[in-house]
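Quick one: structure for this chain?
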Amino acid sequence: MVDCSFASMATSSTSPSHLLPSEKKHWWLTTKKMVDRYIRDARVMISTREENEINSALSLLDAALSLSPRSESALELKARCLLFLRRYKEVADMLQDYIPSYKMAYSDDSSGSSSDNLSQTLSRERVKLLGSSSDSPGCDYRSFKCFSVSDLKRKVLAGISKNCDKEGQWR
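Got it. Here's what it folds into:
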């Protein structure tokens, strides 16, 4: 069923002759405001904690990300929705898409053969998100360690500065 007020609003907003000069640019014409509106509506839907509402919020966030692919708040909310819906593989794929070092490591090998690309894809598929002792007893994934990138950067820069003092200035 079509709402008459919505239909009249849509027809009046598409014909510029009915608009005053001050009304020509509405709030929904700017991308940032649209993205902010989608994110705000998605937050309200997520707060209900109902599966149908979270699925609707996920579609809103996809629309927001299509307009602004690097919106951090939209990316975070999308990851939270996917985690709530227990769609862990999609979260892992989303994270791998937005990790710059992961992209650079594999995009530089464009001259590699198709078998190399296949092995990279397969190794990406084998990454374990949650440890399970029943899967592959020979593989030990407990060696993974989380670390802070800023701490690593600080240590690398400290190592470079120590080497500079020993060998003189580097160029």
